[in-house]
Design brief:
alpha/beta; 425 residues
């Protein structure tokens, strides 16, 4: 397999000292990341901040939803409404518990410490007033504050920070906020989020419902469109991973095929039937593989993983990660010769297609709406091919790398320059 040259992470050009370059207040030296607890969303924000050179000068805040009891059924609500409703439920529940306890009955308490069950006690909870105060209070010493948020639950927090501290912050929202994009300085979102505006999508929606489908307007100049999801994978990350996992992966027979299995979603539905198809196809390509390593995600249903374990678990060429730390994901990206990835995972496909190795997809025909548009864009670039089981895994091909992260970082620099600001670690 021929070596692939990856883009280097963005670096700051050497120049004269800052003090001679103009107003010190125009230089951004720190970043705040607002996450929602989802690895897929937070990974995009962390990756962008890293690409902008502020990885060692970032603070992570997280929007925390109430958990436990009925709260697990209320995640579709906006965070602010969910928290108010939780407040009411706790007061009603507390009163009911007091009355029932007096009658000699017991009730199981609701969780009162949000996130403690998941080890999140050390994560800062996103607080608009605290972040705004920090932006204003440290402006003279540290300059403007970069705020990067991703995911639906972070929209109200990020937009409030922008509204209350517009002179001291530059707010970037990753993933389309659906409406009122002017609440942010920059929006970075995949091109397929605008699929509802295409003629093909319009044909699928009854006319009386079209006004309710978002986005309803084409992107303006402060929207940066990507092909896939942002992530943290660049040449430096891969070099580090290749070194860290050398002893485990270097001795493996080649070619090494890495299989990443996600889980069904609302727009990419599958079950044990696709798992059986995948297992049969992998058995068919075993003769052209030196080794196969398989990983499941947190979303993988047990019925899917059980099929894979039953059909391939005892094959000497196949290793199935058991989910225990350390996670070999970065090692897989660095050492794989080819990938097979289930169609549901935009993040895993985006990472693999940024490396330049052959990427095979299984289940793309089951994806609907904007996700079918995403897969179409990857096929048109020549980045992915359907996995059928008839492939020769020693055969490679080339395609234009997905370079979304470098392009997004470039657009952030340009947007800051229009405002008279710049980034400097």
């Amino acid at each position: 397999m021929r070596p692939i040259r990856l883009p280097e992470p963005p670096s700051i050009s050497p120049g004269v000292p800052e003090i001679f370059e103009g107003d010190m207040y125009s230089v951004i030296r720190r970043a705040v990341i607002i996450g929602n607890g989802s690895p897929g969303s937070e990974n995009q924000s962390i990756g962008l901040v890293r690409a902008l050179g502020l990885a060692d000068k970032q603070l992570l805040y997280r929007v925390k939803r109430p958990r436990g009891g009925i709260n697990e059924w209320l995640h579709w609500l906006p965070v602010s409404i969910h928290k108010r409703l939780d407040f009411v439920i706790k007061h009603i529940f507390g009163y009911s518990q007091l009355m029932l306890t007096s009658r000699g009955k017991k009730l199981l308490p609701l969780h009162t410490e949000n996130g403690s069950h998941a080890g999140l006690a050390s994560v800062l909870e996103a607080d608009v007033k605290q972040i705004v105060t920090m932006a204003h209070g440290n402006f003279e010493k540290h300059g403007p504050l970069l705020v990067v948020a991703s995911g639906r639950d972070t929209i109200s927090i990020a937009s409030s920070i922008k509204r209350l501290a517009s002179d001291s912050v530059f707010v970037i929202q990753i993933q389309h906020p659906r409406s009122h994009l002017n609440r942010f300085d920059l929006v970075i979102t995949p091109r397929h989020d605008y699929y509802p505006l295409t003629p093909h999508a319009q044909e699928q929606v009854p006319r009386f419902l079209r006004r309710w489908i978002t986005p309803s307007e084409p992107p303006d100049k402060h929207v940066v469109l990507t092909v896939g999801a942002l992530h943290q994978i660049d040449s430096a990350a891969l070099r580090n991973a290749a070194s860290a996992w050398h002893d485990q992966f270097a001795p493996l027979p080649k070619p090494l095929l890495v299989v990443n299995i996600g889980g069904p979603t609302r727009h990419c539905k599958y079950g044990a039937d696709l798992a059986k198809q995948l297992a049969a196809s992998l058995q068919s390509v075993l003769q052209t593989c030196g080794s196969i390593r398989i990983s499941f995600s947190r979303r993988t249903p047990v019925k899917v993983s059980n099929v894979i374990l039953k059909e391939l678990g005892n094959n000497p060429k196949v290793y199935i990660w058991n989910g225990e730390e350390p996670n070999p994901h970065l090692g897989h990206l660095a050492w794989a010769d080819a990938f097979v990835i289930t169609a549901d995972s935009v993040s895993m496909l985006s990472e693999a297609c940024s490396i330049g190795k052959p990427v095979y997809v299984i289940g793309a025909e089951r994806c609907k709406w904007k996700f079918s548009d995403f897969h179409k864009s990857l096929r048109e670039r020549g980045a992915v091919r359907p996995f059928t089981g008839s492939e020769d895994m020693s055969v490679s091909w080339s395609y234009p790398l997905l370079n979304d992260m470098a392009e997004a970082a470039k657009q952030v620099h340009l947007a800051l320059a229009e405002r008279g600001w710049k980034l400097r670690p």
